[in-house]
Amino acid sequence: MLCYTSRYDETARKAIERARTLPAETQDAVAVAVLAMAEESPIALDDATRAAIREGLEQARRGEFVPEEEIDGLWKRHGL
C-alpha cells in the first residue's frame, strides 16, 4: 500500500504543478473535473457523466487523442 500511495502522491503533485501553468479558465475546468471525480463537485454529475470522465482520462493515459486537424475543423464549423 505504501508504494501505491507514494506513486499516487507523486502523480497528484505533478498534475497540480502542471495545472498551475494553465490559463485561469482551464485551471477552473481541471478543478471542477477533479472535484467531480472526488464527488465534491460544485455541479451535480450523474453516474454516466462520471463514467465518461473516467473513460476520457483512461484514453488520455493511453495517448488516444483526437488529431489537432480534427479539433481545428470542429472549432471552425462552430465559428470559434
Give the secondary structure arrangement, pairings included.
Elements: H1 2-19, H2 24-37, H3 47-61, H4 68-77
What does this structure look like?
By secondary structure, the chain is mostly helical. Helix content is 71%, strand content 0%. It is built from 4 helices and no strands. It is globular and about 40 Å long.
Features:
4 helices; 80 residues; single chain; 0% strand; mainly alpha
Provide a quick synopsis of the model:
The protein is mainly alpha-helical and 80 residues long. The chain is 71% helix and 0% strand.
The largest β sheet comes out as:
none
Number of helical runs?
4
The sequence of SSEs as H and E is: HHHH
Summarize the amount of helix as a percent range.
over 70%
Low-confidence stretches: none
Overall SS class? mainly alpha
Q: Determine the mean pLDDT.
A: 80
| Form type | globular
Span of the ends, CA to CA: 47 Å
